[in-house]
Amino acid sequence: MSSKIEALRRDAEAMQAELVADRRHLHQHPELSFEECETAQFVIRRLKDLNIPFREGVGGFGVLANIQGCGSGPTVALRADMDALPIQEANDVPYASKVAGVMHACGHDVHTASLLGAAALLRSRTGDFRGNVRLLFQPAEERLPGGAHLMIRDGALQGPVPVSIYGQHVMPLLDSGKVGFRSGQYMASADEIRLTIRGKGGHAAMPHLNTDSVLIASHVVVALQQVVSRRANPTLPSVLSFGHILGEGAYNVLPNEVRLRGTFRTLDEGWRERAHTFIREIAEGTASAMGASCIVEIDKGYPMLYNHPLPTSLARRTADQYLGSENVVDLDLWMAAEDFAWYAQEIPASFYRLGTRNEARGIVSSVHTPTFDIEEDAMATGAGLLAAIALEQLEQA
Questions:
Q1: pTM for the full model?
Q2: 154 is catalytic
Q3: Smallest Cα–Cα separation from 342: which of 197, 138, 129, 171?
Q4: For 303-327, how does the pLDDT look when each residue is reduced to its tens digit (9 = 90+)?
Q5: What phi, psi does 140 have (nearest 5°)?
Q6: Domain formed by 194-299, architecture
Q7: Which entry of 22, 81, 89, 141 is annotated as an active-site residue?
Q8: Domain segments of the chain: what residues?
């Protein structure tokens, strides 16, 4: 480990109490997507304390900041998302959410606090690097069209264009103190599907006089499984799932319509477009053959997330130095989606995982669950490694 990396790690570990305090404050005061007003103001107060110039109102409640080094050079970007989820927290901890029905169940409080920590570490080292570090505190990762898309629209990657952008995300499957990387295809695209089956409702005892939208909806769901099982190349990961079906009839009443909600995910943009066509054709055709109609609405969500090889290789080498290679692991493909993918479509990008698990303390719950929590020792790792990656990128660019 170089002396600079060692000093950075020591400084990050010395900030642990402050990092935890920031994370706990954010955890107690979560805000939903497109509502992150107070979270943004908290970030702004911290940036003012550090005398870091910023611009607010980027992509909604996003905050854009810049840390200028001691001379001219390239720009590297670091991103953290800030929004929470509509989940009621079930953890019995002193820092549990104070907002009913809203919780930081995906670790965005960790991401924001870690980036603030990285900002402090970099601000104290402006004499050690040339160029600029751009900090993106992003709103609305959890809801379409995604805060990344909106921040790009508002110029977050302009003036000048960064040579690369990095983001990290908590991973409760990975022990605290470890991080994970994957080059190339990493996370899936995600589209929202809405189907409305319209038949003719009536008394359940007289099905011959009605068009049973519940039965037809069932056939549509089964028929659509062939999109993945028979239309997709079997070597190409794809997921088509329906998690919501609503037919407001009764024990003896067939409803006029049934509404379904689902998701389609894949790792190939060309196949994604073809699959949308198949979904429409199969749903509409199945319903029509049984005497009903089907309205198909597909909202295109985030694209597939591609980790560019060069920045991913640089980040991994930095992690090897910062944590030791025994604490750096390879990641598998993951069919969840991330709006960080929008940045990766614009400039070289790398999105990696921060381990937060501690089985001995029972900190094992998955993200998007009411019992999600983290081993807070991960905070120093998150802040220090972000700063180290930015410094290494500026040195290599």
A1: 0.94
A2: no
A3: 138
A4: 999 999 999 999 999 999 999 999 9
A5: 55, 50
A6: 2-Layer Sandwich (3.30)
A7: 141
A8: 3-187+304-396, 194-299
